[in-house]
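User:
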Amino acid sequence: MQGDRLIGVERESAGGKARGSSGSATPADHALTIRDQKFCRGDRPARWWHSGDPVATAWYNSVSASLPRGEKFFIQVMKYYDDKVPPRMAKELRAFTRQESNHAREHVAFNNLAQSHGYDIESIDKGIEEMLALTQGRPVEFNLAITIALEHFAASISHCLLTDPRYLAGVDEEIAEMWRWHSIEEIEHKGITYDVWLYATREWSAWKRYRVRALLTLLITRRYYNNRVRDALGLLRQDGIAGARAKWLLFKHLWIAPGMMRRMFLDWAKILLPGFHPWKQDDRALIRKFDSPYADAVMPAE
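Assistant: Predicted structure:
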């Protein structure tokens, strides 16, 4: 009975307006745009580039340090399906891989700036390599579910960065623009990994599909978040901030003020619901606002 109930929810569509395989809520007229931009190639930002705050700087440096190798993993997973999905989905998949390749390149450049201040970024990258090594030899659907989980986490963070100016307040404008650029493309391509998942697992029962993605979401997101905290604390130690003080300051930043983790938690948790699809939250207005030359005149969707 439980499996039958989940079949009806997991395979629901968005009023016939979605595209792709059964269950997709991606808007039919949605397309990905390659915004091949480069940042931080000129003057070196301050060591504490985020508003002069070592804690905020450490958190974002930790996230950035994890991205190049993570983005390459996503590209590798998705390329496997390039010739296995319908043509329109394959076109969007290829646009996704180009966006992610650009993101990896720009975060390598940004991470080099952090290293130029003496921060140990290589050990963080090594930790990501070791974590991803655990995916070797796993079924491709397993790695696709991991990709979905981390892409959803990224999209939830991106939504916060684009809708609440507090998170980038006081940041050098070029660096802030890099994070906004990355965030807008994370939102833009947030549905493609899930649509590929729906197609790749179309022969699975809805219960198996739900169980696998929910379990892997809990496992990989928890591990990724804990590793980001661990590495941020490691960066703070390099600034002479350690022990209970460092843990409290980082917890306060993430969960109290400005408290991004607290504010994004319910949005992130939607992935654990049967019938989840990233585009059930339609935030295309953020994309239009970013792309518009008159950004202030573009109103967000209600």
